[in-house]
Amino acid sequence: METATTDKLTAKDFSSDQEVRWCPGCGDYSILKQVQTILPDLGRPREEFVFISGIGCSSRFPYYMDTYGMHSIHGRATAVATGLKATRPDLSVWIVTGDGDSLSIGGNHFIHLLRRNPDVNVLLFNNQIYGLTKGQYSPTSEQGKVTKSTPMGSVDYPFNPIALSLGADATFVARTLDRDPKHQQNVIKKGYYHAGTSLIEIYQNCNVFNDGAFEVYTEKGTKKQNTLMMENGMPLLFGENNELGIKLDGFKPVIANLAETSINDIWVHDETDLVKATILSRFYDDPTVENHFPRPFGVFYVNNNKQTFNDLFNNQIDFAKKTYGAGDLDKLIAGKETWVVN
Amino acid sequence: MTNALDKELESVVIRFAGDSGDGMQLTGTQFTNATALHGNDLATFPDFPAEIRAPLGTLAGVSGFQIHFGSTRINTPGDTSDVLVAMNVAALKVNIKNLKKGGVIIINSDGFDAKNLRLANVPEVQNPLHDGSLADYDVKIIDITKITRAALSNSGLGTKEIDRCKNMFVLGLVYWMYHRPIENTLNFIKAKFKKNEAVMNANILVLQTGWNYGETTEMFANRFTVAPAKMESGVYRSIMGNQAAAYGLIAAANKSGLSLFYGTYPITPASDILHELSKYKNFDVKTFQAEDEIAAICSSIGAAFGGALAITGSSGPGIALKGEAIGLATMLELPLVIVNIQRAGPSTGLPTKTEQADLNQAMFGRNGECPLVIVSAQSPADCFYMAFEACRIALEHMIPVFFLSDGYIANGAEPWKYPSSADLPKINVEFKKARLADEEKFMPYQRDEKLSRPWALPGTKGLEHRIGGLEKQNITGNISYDASNHEFMVKLRQEKVDLVANHIPLQTIDNGEEAGELLILGWGGTYGALKTATSLLIDQGYKVSHAHLRYLNPFPKNLGEMLSRFKTVVVPELNNGQLVKIIRDRYFIDAIPYNKIQGMPFMSTEVVDKIKEILA
Fold it and tell me: Who is most buried in A169, B118, B400, B442, counting CB within 10 A?
């Protein structure tokens, strides 16, 4: 990407003068840092970045970025971003949202954003709890979750954001974690370079209201057994020493032990395969259940063949201008039938 | 050949009424266009059910189109009609009460059979064709269905398609009765059915059959001429309110040099603005049909942030959904136009019927102290000017502006001596390009004398900034929870609205003396009825004046002084008393409300009666 910048920017250039006010130890800090770290590498002038958020802890994000930004209203960042990208396709538009913001109050806009596919990036901070309102269950909280609003446990079944996104025909679907900076940077960069909406779910620890929600995927003793780090073109392996793998028995995934199964029989990840991505998206087991599947991280699916909303939208404008010429206001106002009064 | 004698009339009201599938709206629209081209002044009133195809033959399914045209100034579609076309029993039953005694009724006798009587809940013994109830009228009974079928017996079309041509018979006959040229409709039919020659020829043949029916039968003793109106000289066109609003928005985009973004969600009666705007992509007009009303306004806010002339449009129920986002736009201090084509509420209410009951919603309908600018149109053509004004104020003051119209003027038509683009004012928009030499840091809430803040677009180097819905400190735009700052900002946003009064025209008296006994103070689509009523009262010797507000927030600066010159102020509104409460509160006068809440416009005669009652 060609740019006009002379001196290379640094992470500090993307940091605003506003004091960061998340709780100490919040997973949001890591995401802020990774984004500020990778932006200088994208070779784009700072003024072309716009961060748009809704409401929630995550949505304070734009205030801390020294770029253009808007802290909008609950659940609607997706809609604001769509209007901005439609009229200003030259900008790099980012949506910062949380599980409540995007999947509860903003659920409608979320699926329609993905269906339209504007070239924007969605950072979905998923902490499986309402933090800003002090600890109610969220649409991604596990069933039975005991919170302030659900003293006997929540009866709602949780949304699976990855499966939901694939169902809405998203063209880039990935998951990463706050505790894995390198992985995060890598996935977010891939999302940036994807032409179309990039949905990046980030498991983010809320150490005040839902501490340890993802620790099974981040802590030493359990991480390797419970996470499946997907790499395009590589076999799907996991376990302490990558001794386990995923095998497909028809459309049915099976956990195979490499001691008994040839590596050649292990499923090789193909991020352009929607059917397989759909199967992987359903690896959503409760990690305390025996024989559960590991939770996948990385890029589930990429579709480079779906035109972006902003291109389709503006192509029609360009076509109309080319075909009919620039509009003539006087002709428009007069219309086709006029008469003269003397 | 006809022996009908020509008779000259000053004005005529015709009401076309039939089943909602009978094509009465199209018939009315065609007649309107021909009449406009003939040079008459006119006003129309389409009145149709909310259902697209309401149950056939029923009272609920009646669709009407009323046109009032004349050789003099016409301000309303007419209180009562001179001619009623009734395609079936239900259409007659619903509309006869507004037909003048002695008026002409053109009846399609096929629509008065046993089945149609039953569907309209009329016992057979009370068939109006036979029970003498129409003795006071000049009734023309024609079996339009039979004649249409006979005319098209060789057309190769099926009965269903043939019967759909019936309305062309009516149109042809009425064209004959009023000496209207049929060429315009012939061209319309040719264009509309260019891909289906059989249907095209059938419509043309039936149109001519209707004309010839008048010419050859001796059913009609008279034909009528209505001379062209003595209107101000110039070039005219016929215009409908929503069409005019769309053109006004495009004109504003043109005059401000911006591209237009219209984020919306389909809703009656606002959708026609979307349909109209979506045709003009070569004017850099971008229309976005969002997934819901909230996304519609939020996408517009995004477009405004990016530097477009951003507009969102809806009707009352949709505006209710947009409330929170309107508050956001107020906090962001970005230009945004919110179009509300009002309909009868609350909730879903009467979607196809008119009302002006969303003034309170526009004025107060948000959380917190959230004032914004409100303008309203008073006639179909005025929708052009006030939509333009809404954009001008939004852009020049960096503020959200409500543009209020209503179903009555949105769908109504009138002749319009349209302006040339050169006559329209330029709208001054200046994006901030860079920091000034002494500006160490960009201050997004820095203000000018109008208290408006700079519009700095993403992509501009050195002006990176964040805006949002949290309360902010003046000048810096930083989040501020400071108690006194909040009060200061609330007052500031109010003052910003108030200052718009310095940039709008003073209020004028539309009709009557500058001072006197009684002032009729109206707003919105009631203009025509109030103007006619005022003229009638003045002719009868009453000392009455009429002023019509187009700027509702802020009010024109001289309004209070104007009101003080009258002993009595009456505020007629199609609601339960909304403007009147604001007037009473603001100017501390004993303004008298006069309200009609029937989903129908005022009749000028009822306004006349009410004013006489007040003066008695």
Answer: B400
Q: Do residue A320 and residue B281 have CB atoms under 8 angstroms apart?
A: yes
- Yes or no, beta carbons of B466 and A63 under 8 Å apart: yes
Do the domains spanning B5-225 and B237-423 agree at the CATH topology level?
Answer: no
Any idea which residue has 């004046």 for tokens? B545
* Pick from A21, A30, A76, A85: nearest CA to A204: A30
* Identity at B193, one-letter amino acid code: F
Rounded distance, CA B612 to CA B322, Å? 42
Per-residue pLDDT at A233 exceeds 50? yes
Q: B170 and B210 in contact (C-beta within 8 Å)?
A: yes
Contacts of residues A326-332 at CB distance under 8 Å and 24 or more positions apart, as own/partner, are A326/B282, A326/B283, A327/B250, A327/B254, A327/B280, A327/B282, A327/B283, A327/B284, A327/B285, A329/B250, A329/B251, A329/B254, A329/B283, A329/B421, A330/B420, A330/B421, A332/B247, A332/B250, A332/B280, A332/B283
Please report the beta strands in B87-195, taking only residues with DSSP state E, as ranges in sequence order. 99-108, 138-142
Given this model, what pLDDT does residue A6 score? 54
Assess if CATH 3.40.50.970 describes domain B237-423.
yes
Residue A260 CB contacts under 8 Å (≥ 6 apart), including other chains: none
Which among B475, B437, B470, B422 has a CA at the least distance from the CA of B453? B475
Task: Evaluate if residue B215 carries a pLDDT over 80.
Answer: yes
Q: How many CB atoms lie within 10 A of CB B97?
A: 7
Host H or E run for residue A49:
strand A49-53
For Cα atoms A217, A221, A224, give the angle at the middle one, nearest 5 degrees: 50
Structure token pair of residue B319: 């505006």
Partners of A21 on chain B (C-beta within 8 Å) are: none
Domains and CATH numbers, chain A: 11-213 (3.40.50.970)
Q: How far is it, in rounded angstroms, from Cα B326 to Cα B263? A: 13
Residue of A51, A63, A80 best to disrupt the B interface, most CBs of B under 10 A: A80
The domain limits of chain B are 5-225, 237-423, 516-615
Which residue spans within B145-252 are E strands per DSSP? Answer: 222-225, 234-240
How is domain B516-615 classified at the architecture level of CATH? Answer: 3-Layer(aba) Sandwich (3.40)
Per the listing, tokens 């006030």 go with B386
- Is the pTM higher than 0.90? The answer reads yes
We find that the CATH architecture of domain B5-225 is 3-Layer(aba) Sandwich (3.40)
Closest Cβ–Cβ partner in A68, A76, A340 for B325: A76
Q: Give the mean pLDDT of A148-173.
A: 97
Q: Determine the residue among A12, A64, A84, A120 to mutate to test chain B binding: the one whose Cβ has the most chain B Cβ atoms within 10 Å.
A: A84
Q: pLDDT (tens digit, 9 = 90+) per residue, B537-576?
A: 999 999 999 999 999 999 999 999 999 999 999 999 999 9
Q: Do A71 and B468 touch (CB under 8 A)?
A: yes
Residue A32 amino acid letter: L
Q: Which residue of B has its CA nearest to A316?
A: B281
Spatial contact of B69 and B226, defined as CB atoms under 8 Å apart:
yes
